[in-house]
Amino acid sequence: TIDFPLPMHLTKLSIDESYFSFPFIEQLLCKTTKLIHLIIIASRMFHDVADGTEWERILSKIITFKFLFIFDNSIWSEQPIKLDSFRTPFWLEKKQWYVMYNRCSVSGFSLLYSVPYFMNAYPYSNIKGNLIVEATGPQDLSFSNIKYLNIRWTSPVNNEIIRRFTHLQQLSVNDSEKSYRMMIDDISPYVDMSKITTFIINNYYTEINIDMFTQFIRYMSHLCVLGASITL
Fold this sequence. Notes:
The chain folds into 2 domains: 1-139, no CATH class; 142-232. 20% of the residues lie in helices and 25% in strands. It has helices spanning 22-31, 52-58, 89-94, 159-162, 177-187, 210-218; strands at 12-17, 37-45, 64-71, 98-104, 110-115, 131-135, 148-151, 170-173, 198-201, 225-228. The strands form 2 sheets. Strands 1-2-3-5-4-6 form a 6-stranded mixed beta sheet, with no helix packed on it. A 4-stranded parallel beta sheet has the order 7-8-9-10.
């Protein structure tokens, strides 16, 4: 139940919740009759949200619909979802809305989102092994909105995901020498280093090979900011 006031003439709304239900969204839309732009971000969703027919029923007046749904870990072991209900004339022709489904082949971690991807971060550290990708429209696989990448050696590296960060501008390395080596060996070969403008080394307690570091920096032809932690 919506127990807070909503402006009658609201035209754009962004929702960031861990979970929501269709009745909640339907009630919200009934109270905001002027709403035409809707953004929803949710991090603990279940497979009922992957029902394009149900969305079609309640979104007839919406012009732009952007969303990111990360599925709850309790259903990672279930079968992958199907996108057939998002391939109707309503989705592909009338609204021209496209969706993409990503699923980790190892853990089952999965998410459903609108295309093009609109967020400035992607949960890449949850992807172990190959990535299963299904889309209802042109497969725009790039994450052009993501400008920043923080590298920790404890996070897995999926080259397939890293390649999709086509507009990275800032790199940050944390924790230890292992993170630094990971960046050189597993990240930089798949990133356009010439676009990096900011490079930060945090909490670094191991000596850096100066020759290797100098050679690496040369690849960042547009580097403007270089930061490092210094222990005196």
